[in-house]
Amino acid sequence: MHTSALVLFSGGQDSTTCLALALSKYERVETIAFDYRQRHSVELEARLRVLEQIKLQFPQWAHKLGDDHMLDLGVLGQVSETSLTRDVAFKMESSGLPNTFVPGRNLLFLTLAAALAYRRDLQVMVTGVCETDFSGYPDCRDDTMKAMQLALSLGMDKRFLIETPLMWIDKADTWALTHTLGGQKLVELVIEHTHTCYLGDRSHRHTWGYGCGTCPACDLRKKGYEKWIRAAA
Ligand code: ZN
């Protein structure tokens, strides 16, 4: 029986939904994020705001929410040429991956998360990776997650579970899951406080939240929201 979890929590819509899911299932939940000198500190600010709002608005979850951990991964800057870490515009590469892609980044995240989970005696790692919507990040695929679960469990001699609640659902289903977990109050929290936009835009407020409205991340969030609203009507 699993009772504790570590959520890979970036402050975006997906990881906020994963956090709500973990808080609804487990007795003790901690959060982890990685600072790799993102061009947009808005993401790091968003996650602190979301944690604060969850504690404020969801007393049934507040007492389960434990420590938040921020690991410095500035070293990633040494192996990336991307718009998230250098002053280069966002674009799609010929490989079909956005140039924000840092090869194997998620493998590193999971390895460090597992080391922390080991130290903190947390059994489950929850991550918002998804095969359904665009990206095609190979380090977010279901097979990769299963391989990592096995490698980390063997390599640390501790049985880890990697939970991926969003793996096979689309963005509309993610909004629906948010609603199921925390009602309209949680939907509003996601709209108002989470951050997804690649350009770090917090000056334009749409029905689905803040963002430039045109980058791939905004586009996904917007279309998912509209599809969910249509389906719910
Ligand atoms: Zn955007």
Task: Please explain how this structure is put together.
The chain is 44% helix and 13% strand. With 233 residues, the chain is an alpha/beta fold. The protein has a single domain, classed as 3-Layer(aba) Sandwich (Rossmann fold), CATH 3.40.50.620. A five-stranded parallel beta sheet has the order 3-2-1-4-5, with helices on both faces. A two-stranded antiparallel ribbon has the order 6-7. The protein is globular, with a radius of gyration of 17 Å. The mean pLDDT is 89. The site of zinc ion (ZN) has 9 residues, from helix 7.
Largest sheet: spatial strand order: 3-2-1-4-5
Low-confidence stretches: none
What is the name of the CATH superfamily? HUPs
Structural class: alpha/beta
Task: Kindly estimate the percentage of residues that lie in beta strands according to DSSP.
Answer: 5-15%
- Mean pLDDT, to the nearest integer, reads 89
| CATH class term | Alpha Beta
CATH architecture: 3-Layer(aba) Sandwich
Total beta strands:
7
CATH topology annotation: Rossmann fold
Q: How many domains make up the 3D coordinates? A: 1
Number of helices: 7
Distance between the termini: 38 Å
Shape: globular
Order of helices and strands: EHEHHEHEHEHEEH
Which percent range fits the helix content?
40-55%
Main beta sheet: 5 strands, parallel
Radius of gyration: 17 Å
Q: Which ligands occur here?
A: zinc ion
